[in-house]
Amino acid sequence: MDTRDMIVLIGVLILGGLGVWYVWRHVGNKKIVNPEIADRPFLEQVLKQRVAFFQQLKPEDQNKFISRVAHFLHTTKISPEKGAVVSWEQRILIAASATIPLFHFDTWAFENLDEVLVYPDHFDERYNTESEDRNVLGMVGDGVLHRKMILSLPALMEGFDRQGDGHTAIHEFVHLIDKADGQVDGVPEYLIPKALIQPWISEMHRSIQQIREQRSDIRPYAAKNPAEFLAVVSEYFFQRPERLETDHPKLYELLAQIYGGQTSMRDPEEMGKIQGEPDR
Ligand SMILES: [Zn+2]
User: CB 3.0 to 4.6 Å from 147: which of 16, 114, 152, 182, for a disulfide?
Assistant: First the structure.
């Protein structure tokens, strides 16, 4: 082999290596499990009509969002259970709920999730949809449900139907983010800058105390434990950022830093439109 061949070979190896690196960094190493998904114009149409977070993104970010939704749909099994019928629109809304909290993290995918089980109704903690105590809306799995999530279809749709501060699917995806560092403890160590961990923990305990003393408008379920606190205030942050910013500026500021770039992302005119929507 002469020097020129060597240079060509090294060049090819470097380009190949960069290609592998790019895919690993930007796409993750999850396998394609669904080669066929809804086409891009349909993804865009659903996101435009149903997802407030998507509506307020700049066009180039909307493109990025659509690609992330497509990637989730290609790599995550969505399985209707117990007679549930899950439309493409609903699959896209599940993928959108996964994309929202991690949108500003280009290198992050849900590596700890293979499958979303969709139940037709609320379910109890033994995953039974027909028992008396049907109060669970979503769940992130352990044991036999390792790498799986359960979502109730009505709870998924409620998160998109009314512009309230509740959003079950985002809530469950935030639990998965929290779980990625090995502990579901309200401190998402992969996202939170080290310097913010202590301020976040103090603010979390202060806010939980306020909720317990009924001096807060945050849903009481948030005071159950730090993991639920993170999940509930994250719903609030993504559903009603302007209200959270007004009523809980410290909490808002910390969450904006944890999830990255919330403030700069927003176009004030678009924000006005979203704020103007009535509660349902
Ligand atoms: Zn929860």
Answer: 114
